[in-house]
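[audit] Reproducing an earlier prediction to check determinism. Same input, same settings, fresh worker. If the tokens differ from the archived copy the diff job will pick it up downstream; this log only records the rerun itself.
[audit] input (160 residues):
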Amino acid sequence: MKARLAASAALAIGIALGASGCSMVTYQATTEHYDASDGVSVDVGQLDLRNVLVVSDDGVDGTLVMTVVNTGTEDVSLDVQFGEGGGESQTIEVEAGSQVVFGVDAVEGTDEVEPIVLEGIDTLPGEFLPMFFEYSGAEGVEKLIPVLDGRLPEYENLVP
């Protein structure tokens, strides 16, 4: 009788554990970082670049869209190189402890800046533009940046 009771209890515990979805062995997608928008993320030293993308209708010129957060205590001159072999470049000044948003209307709590137009990107919408981000004192990072067109309402005003 005790053996039957022990077997029933073991079976009940096994079913309860199997049906409970125990997080100890289950993959947890919420622990994985992902880019929740159309752009990509890049971390360069004390700078966090978020939602980096380029908007272009013709694949010749494009508007750079991104948010740059300087988490450090020093001002930074970020050098952005684009194209095969880093042929062209732009320099962006980011003050210590500030957040700068490029390619969108004024956002409360951020510095308002002129859009950055990249000339001669030679990358059609739907392709990736190789870009290299660096500044003095930090190791540079190369990333493939998506190029989108102005068909979506949120990007139609960003086409150069």
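[audit] rerun output stored. Observation attached for the diff report: The first strand starts at residue 40 and ends at 44.
[audit] end
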